[in-house]
């Protein structure tokens, strides 16, 4: 059975309250204003069923040329040189990349090439630390491997040194204990590439983005993307200057930009297609990338790669099995099977430099979408 394609239409046609959606858009518009905005620019896409009821772009894809630490301000480009955000602007997805890696893993589980409860060492026998602790594929997907959050792979110039460091990494807590870690999807990437003989970028292109028509989604370089950070110590881990079109994450950058935990760029419309595909049981138009049972593996609590019912960024959408994720650059998506709704929020919140995470805009927009369903 084909999954319905998205179309842009009115909130009423989507079964959503237009007043709440106006408030949702107002939240995003307000977040990009002022001297220290939540983000210089943002795109929000939201809808229900096959209808996109909100598709709004605000602010700047490129506003600053540098960050001035002395004044704690961005060095602004002349108005004529700034680049406005459009609904077609690609953004660095950061950790939303993990969702695509998880989907690729479950595709291989569905085909019998990977076992969810198989030890990782079955596919990566040279990763001896994983073998010693009996870490499973499921534990990598659910962040219960016990691995630390990250390794300083960016500090090593040799690919062999970086690989050996990852291969020798021991869990810092007992497997089965939740500890969010970028190392989990990195190990999943290695397992996928060993099992299939194809690199992650090829797997995602051939197995996800191409069949779904997500032509604006892929690993960098992506020269038209929104800019991210004036990256340099002490607030960053590498000295790269103003980053645009290359992955923001330092480890992903050091590893060549194609990694399981970060590196993808996409537009809001493409991510709406991704959400619609999962809400439709794995199909979109004539394409099917997963079966309904495999989609349930991803989205049912506790989720495989996806976070489930997390009010700290899902707001009032959480509580009935909503699934999604956030990204460090200022990105997030939520899909709620109970109401057949989706919310994509993309921003360059780290432009011109990273700040402490602020989830208020994510929560506020999610609340308005939840109320838009209830208010109908």
Radius of gyration: 20 Å
In CATH, the homologous superfamily goes by the name: DD-peptidase/beta-lactamase superfamily
Low-confidence stretches: none
Relative strand content: 15-25%
User: Biggest β-sheet, characterized?
Assistant: 8 strands, mixed
How would you state the average pLDDT, rounded?
96
Number of helices: 13
Number of strands: 17
CATH architecture: 3-Layer(aba) Sandwich
Summing up helix and strand content along with how strands pair, one would put the structural category as: alpha+beta
Order of helices and strands: EHHEEEEEEHHHHHHEEEHEHEEHEHEEEH
CATH class category: Alpha Beta
Choose one word for the global shape. globular
According to CATH, the fold-level topology is Beta-lactamase
Relative helix content = 25-40%
Q: What is the terminal-to-terminal distance?
A: 29 Å
Number of separate structural domains: 1
Describe this structure in words.
The protein is α+β, with helices and mostly antiparallel strands and 376 residues long. The chain has a single domain (7-100, 201-374), classed as 3-Layer(aba) Sandwich (Beta-lactamase). The protein contains 13 helices and 17 strands. It has helices at residues 11-14, 18-31, 97-110, 128-133, 137-141, 159-168, 183-196, 200-212, 250-254, 268-279, 292-299, 311-314, 360-374, and strands at 7-8, 41-48, 51-62, 64-68, 73-76, 83-84, 91-92, 218-219, 230-231, 241-242, 264-266, 283-284, 287-288, 307-308, 323-327, 331-336, 341-347. The strands form five sheets. Strands 1, 2, 3, 6, 14, 15, 16 and 17 form an eight-stranded mixed β-sheet that branches. Strands 7-11-8 form a three-stranded antiparallel β-sheet. The chain has a two-stranded antiparallel ribbon with strand order 4-5. Strand 16 (331-336) and strand 17 (341-347) form a beta hairpin. Helix 3 crosses helix 11. It starts with 6 loop residues before the first strand and ends with a helix.
